[in-house]
Amino acid sequence: MDKLASHAELSQFLSSIERRAYKHAVFAVRNDHDALDIVQDAMFKLAEKYGGKPAEELPLLFQRILQNTIRDYCRRRKVRTGWMALFSSLQTKDGEEEFDPLDVLQDDENQSAPAAPDESLQQKQVIALIEQELSNLPARQREAFLLRYWEGLDTADAAKAMNCAEGSVKTHCSRATHALAAALKTKGVRL
Amino acid sequence: MNTELDPGKVTQLLNQSTRQMSGQILSALNRARQNALERHAVRTHAFALAPSGGAHTYTNRWMHWAGLHSAQHLAIVILLAAVVISGVGYWHHVEEQKIGELDVAILTDDLPVEVFVDH
After folding, report:
1. In this structure, is the dihedral angle defined by the CA atoms of residues B77, B79, B83 and B86, taken in order, positive or negative?
2. I need a surface site. Which of A133, A141, B48, B55 has the fewest CB within 10 A?
């Protein structure tokens, strides 16, 4: 019989994965609170339903749960957005805020911006750019890229987590890498 | 198309990003983890308290008992039905045989005496 994951093992695993899991969710839903809810849901499901699994199976199981929870959230949001769009189209436009050109005005001649940023600030900016571009990637490409390179899953495990063929994972990874490189290049970032 | 991207460098920067998360998010993640661990503890405790066979042993036993007894009941009902049907068939056969003998006796004008006797 399989050995149950002990309380300490589960705790250690969750603390090792929680930050990356949160980032996965943020890239997908672009909302901090919703991302926290998703991570919490995934943790609950793992602890309740798969607490009886061996510790070595936890990473793949958690990734599958997390990706499914993110997909469920996106489906619900799509339905909700559809209904909201329907209702908002029925409402009068009296309540809309007036457009203020000053809100979007860019002052190109303003030289009061801080001088050359230090290295850490530059790094933060690069990280912000990468995160932004990852969010902009198609969901499946982002999943494949993050699971393969960030989570370190092999192609077979990534395919299991994404519920698709190994060939699809390779294709998504390749496209994600190309798209990310091209997007970062346009922003002057080379990695 | 530009393919010069080292995924290792990207993930390195992403790891850097996870180390720079705000305290608010980290405490929220910590709470979520503690809640999940509480649920795991409750589940493990339930398994430990249950007799061998798991938490659903009593339910399983009842299901097993009910299944076994319902099978026995069904067998008994089928047996009784078979006895009743064969009894009725035998009775019907005997009656037909009696009527046949009576018909033969009427045709041969050899009716037994007891036919004319009031019972």
Report:
1. positive
2. B48
Q: Is A121 on the interface with B (CB under 8 A)?
A: no
Q: Which residue, chain included where needed, has tokens 């510790």? A: A55
Q: Cα torsion at B49, B55, B60, B61 (round to 10°)? A: 0
Would you say the pTM of this structure is higher than 0.80? no
Tell me, yes or no, whether A111 lies in a domain.
no
Q: How many domains does chain A have?
A: 2
CATH number at residue A143: 1.10.10.10
What integer pLDDT is reported at residue B107 of this predicted model? 84
ipTM of the modeled complex: 0.75
pLDDT for the residue numbered A107 = 56
Residue B35, token pair as written in the block: 């809640």
How many residue pairs from chains A and B have C-beta atoms closer than 8 A? 105
Residue ranges making up the domain that contains A40 = 1-83
